[in-house]
From TrEMBL:
NCBIfam families: bioD (TIGR00347). One of its GO terms (molecular function) is dethiobiotin synthase activity. The gene is bioD. HAMAP family: BioD (MF_00336). Mg(2+) binds at residues 16, 53, 110. It is found in: Cytoplasm. It comes from Amycolatopsis mediterranei (strain S699) (Nocardia mediterranei). Catalyzes a mechanistically unusual reaction, the ATP-dependent insertion of CO2 between the N7 and N8 nitrogen atoms of 7,8-diaminopelargonic acid (DAPA, also called 7,8-diammoniononanoate) to form a ureido ring. This is ATP-dependent dethiobiotin synthetase BioD.
Length: 241
């Protein structure tokens, strides 16, 4: 059984789409897949959240579980405090992930925002969950200017917490990449201290399930069952520019 902790360099970097893409490839490869979202914020009880997007894109065979939902678009700790709802304990998250792991080939744990976003007043974070599970970490990063510092900080924190970063994925590659984005194809793996395991096109979350699977296969590394080659992609992207 395999567990991967999905973290971002910030909010809105394409973490849910990347999680769905990894899940879609695994399902297509015959694996039993679960996605755990410990805390969903900024969504009311009657609204669809990130897990609904995962199922829409990766298919109904994906098992999903959400532990807490808070209406305010804040960190889980701040949202819990404002709403008066119970906060999350890392042990509860780890137990839920372990339970899913026993019945699935791949379990993806999608955080809220970055690696150190707080779950409770004591400062527990996704880093604590990853450490308790002994899980590899996937960093989802932006493509353009400013991403190198955020990626390097995330990787440095992961290392100091005893975590292993398996790789970095660009969650939303622009249709017209600028010089910074093109340069970052080479520089992001250096910042992460780990290989570039994928580049997913911006906007694929609006695709049909069939087209999404094709984009996931083209945009993710063979490590996930895809066909992405970072050197080939960089060459084609530069030539297109």
């Amino acid at each position: 059984m395999t567990m991967l902790v999905m973290t971002g360099t910030g909010t809105g970097v394409g973490k849910t789409i990347t999680t769905a893409a990894i899940a879609a490839l695994a399902v297509a490869g015959g694996q039993r897949v679960a996605v755990l979202k410990p805390a969903q914020t900024g969504v009311r009880p009657d609204e669809p959240g990130d897990l609904q997007d995962v199922v829409r894109l990766a298919g109904p065979d994906v098992t999903t579980r959400e532990l807490r939902r808070y209406p305010d678009p804040l960190s889980p700790e701040a949202a819990a405090r404002r709403s008066g709802l119970p906060s999350l304990d890392p042990g509860e998250i780890a137990q839920a992930a372990s339970d899913l792991d026993t019945a699935h080939d791949l379990t993806l744990i999608e955080g809220a925002g970055g690696l150190l976003v707080r779950f409770d007043r004591a400062g527990a974070s996704l880093a604590d969950v990853a450490w308790s599970l002994g899980s590899l970490v996937i960093i989802v990063a932006e493509a353009g200017l400013g991403t190198l510092n955020a990626t390097a900080l995330t990787a440095e924190v992961a290392g100091k917490r005893g975590l292993t970063v398996a790789g970095v994925i660009i969650g939303a590659w622009p249709a017209e990449p600028d010089l910074a984005a093109l340069s970052n194809l080479e520089d992001l793996p250096v910042a992460a201290g780990a290989p570039l395991l994928g580049v997913l096109p911006a906007g694929i979350g609006r695709s049909s399930r069939e087209d999404f699977l094709a984009a996931a296969r083209a945009g993710l590394s063979p490590w996930f069952g895809g066909e992405f080659d970072p050197e080939l992609f960089a060459g084609c992207a530069s030539a297109g520019k």
